[in-house]
Write a structure and sequence with these properties.
Layout lengths: L3 E6 L5 H10 L4 E6 L11 H19 L3 E4 L2 H14 L4 E3 L4 H8 L2 E7 L1 H4 L2 H10 L3 E7 L2 H12 L6 H9 L7 E4 L8 H7 L4 E3 L2 H11 L10 E6 L7 H8 L4 E7 L5 E5 L2
Parallel strand pairs: 1-2, 1-3, 2-9, 3-4, 5-6, 5-7, 7-8, 9-10
Antiparallel strand pairs: 10-11
Helix pairs in contact: 1-10, 2-3, 4-6, 7-11
The protein binds D-glutamic acid.
Length: 271
């Protein structure tokens, strides 16, 4: 059996990370888990997330037995990584804003961070700025609207009506950053629209770096043959059609289902 990785997010955002991992390592089997019942994370209190994230991830790891867990969510990683690493005995890879890369590319001056309202205020981000971007000024923009729009965009492919008006006051200002970190895994899903509206901005995310990190941690990965599966939380939640369809771009989805209240995965074998 091919080695497997569990990729976790609140919603569809982590698919932007899954896509990078799949392209680099098609022999890894990938389980995608979205915490649909608690979505969105970016508007939740820290204490709620600190309880919720380990609860869901530890149970899912127990059920699915992956070799690596990827927390494909900046909001979750910037808060709960130490706790998850304490509770799990497999490598836990976190996705955090690529401030170091942006600072290196910008070489000083103003850089931007576009992330959820929760992430932009995290001490973790202050630390990243202090450690890797001391010579830069970090301009932060928190948006949960963009998270919602990315979910819709994956489903219907229509550029969100309010996208330009939402970001224009920030990105069209005279002191606007030319390098902007997409510090939420949902946002790379909107990259084509963002690049079309602001072609002069360098949009920076962590996807490719995370895939390389997973490659470093993986052992004995075959050239191909990795399977794909998709799970979500909340027995009342509808099946995430857009996520399932997106995954099918990479191959058949062999297993899908709900991580129920009793945390037993009620999965069905499907194609
Ligand atoms: N995709 C998540 C992140 O990277 C957050 C989305 C949410 O607010 O649930 O931050």
């Amino acid at each position: 059996m091919n080695p497997s990785v569990l990729i976790f997010d609140s919603g569809v955002g982590g698919l932007s990370i899954l896509s990078e991992i799949r392209q680099l390592l098609p022999g890894l089997s990938l389980h995608y888990l979205m915490d649909s019942a608690a979505f969105p994370y970016g508007l939740k209190a820290d204490d709620v997330l600190m309880q919720r994230i380990p609860e869901v991830c530890v149970q899912a790891v127990r059920e699915l037995q992956p070799q690596i867990l990827v927390i494909a969510c900046n909001t979750a990683s910037t808060l709960a990584l130490p706790l998850l690493r304490q509770q799990l005995d497999i490598p836990v890879v976190g996705v955090v804003p690529a401030i170091k890369t942006a600072a290196a590319q910008a070489g000083g001056g103003r850089i931007g961070l576009l992330a959820t309202p929760a992430t932009i205020n995290r001490p973790y981000v202050d630390q990243l700025q202090q450690d890797f971007a001391a010579g830069c000024e970090l301009s932060r923009f928190g948006s949960s609207k963009l998270v919602e729009w990315a979910e819709n965009y994956l489903a219907d492919g229509h550029c969100p009506d309010g996208l330009y008006g939402h970001l224009a006051p920030w990105l069209n200002a005279t002191d606007a950053p030319a390098h902007v970190v997409l510090g939420c895994t949902h946002f790379p899903l909107l990259r084509a629209e963002l690049s079309r509206l602001w072609p002069e901005v360098r949009w920076i995310d962590s996807g490719a770096a995370i895939a390389r990190r997973v490659a470093t941690l993986s052992r004995n990965v075959p050239q191909d043959g990795g399977t794909l599966s998709c799970f979500w939380t909340g027995t009342q939640q509808p099946a995430p059609e857009a996520a399932l369809k997106y995954l099918q771009n990479f191959g058949p989805v062999s297993r899908s289902g709900c991580l129920g209240a009793d945390f037993l995965i009620q999965a069905s074998e499907s194609v």
